[in-house]
Amino acid sequence: MKIRLISSVALLIFIISFFYSCSDDSVTAPPAPPVVQNLVKMDSGYVPGAAAIISFYAEDSLRLGYNKVYLVLYDSATNTLITNSHIDILPVNHGHSAPVENPGENAVEGKFPGAIVLTQAFPNGDLHWRFTFRVHNHFATGEPEGEVQFAIPRILDNPGKFKSFTMPDSTKLYVSYVLPKTPAVGMNDFEFTIHKNEPEIYPYDGSCSIEMNTQNLTNNNYPTGNVNPVHTSLGHYKGRINLDQNGTWRINLKIIRNSVWYDTNFEVNN
Hints:
The chain is mainly beta. The protein folds into 2 domains: 40-151, Macroglobulin (MG2) domain (Immunoglobulin-like); 162-269, Immunoglobulin-like (Sandwich), CATH 2.60.40. Helix content is 9%, strand content 48%. Strands 1, 2, 3, 4, 6 and 7 form a 6-stranded antiparallel beta sheet that branches. Strand 8 (129-137) and strand 9 form a beta hairpin. The longest helix is centred in the N-terminal third of the chain and has 25 residues, at 2-26.
């Protein structure tokens, strides 16, 4: 009798364990809500045709040059966070577009990161830039698609951080400052992007070689130790700059392409 009781208890424990293990396998925890408190919300709205609601965020107010942006999607029927989708960004200013970095199809911590290079500032709120977002919703049945457009009236100027010029070989380039956001005394990671000014395409250009120095405009000091930027990916060039004291600095760049070059610069303060 005792053996039979022990066997019954063991069988009951096995059944309960099996049931819960199966239940755990079938339960998927909802994704954590994205952290957006440190971002600036540009706009949000329903995406007709895509069964989605999109929110458009940036790291700061939109301005001339390189802008890191983040998109958050929710299913419009269930309000569930969407973490897998294709999103295309289409900025338009008087019928002309601009360079973009479209997000990957998988969200990062609930957000789809991308970037927009704005080629003209409108600090007085002239309402020329409009941003269309095309959404292919992988979450909903049938993977519906649609688009929505937001108008952002004010695009701030960004002195010393964006350059547009024509190379001696007639190639038109946009050069946009990315890092450091807050330059410090000493060595800093340095990053910028290069895109071709080819209307409606605006591809990145990773074919350039860069020579560089840093110049303190207060005392005309040229510190050593800079590391010339090299292309990494998607038109991003990364190096190191030495800002060995406080002041206003000019980062002098020689951009070499097809055996010809153009001299330009950025200006920063630390």
